Amino acid sequence: MIIISFPGLLTGLYIIQIVNPAIPKFFFGFLVIICAFWMLFSLKSQAVNTNSHVLVEKMIPYAWVPFIGGLSSGISSVGTAESLLPVLERKLKIEIHRAIATAVMVEGAVGWLATSINIWEGNIRWDIAAFTTTGVIIGGRIGPVLSGMLDVQILKLIFSVFVFFTGIHMIYKNYNLLF
To answer: Into how many domains does the chain fold?
Structure first.
């Protein structure tokens, strides 16, 4: 998934150099909302996912998802985990905690590549990066502990709500910048 995400990321970073970045960000906001609803609708299912691993052959039909997630991340810094988690959990039947960890791992690898490119190009706002890194580190420690204590349905609900509002924010923030 990481290998397939990287070309998507690079394509996204290129796209925002040649078009108004608000256009793809606006439309990816809708993609993020669709992912949120997809996870939200999975709350109805009573199926218990027990897969701890998946053969590569089972991933092939969904190989486009990491590319689209990387593309979205290159354009808007959002999308890799949001697009991967529903596929891992709903289609590949991976247990939710492992699906979350896998999606976060792929998102992290994509983030490191994007960060490296942005450092190279001088695009990092170090004052903001230093401030938000603290929150990421703290959240990265608290999140796994909380997810181990929460029911799977609650985790899906929390994920869906946060992803939904992320999509709404992307649409709202970029709508006025389209024209």
So the answer is: 1
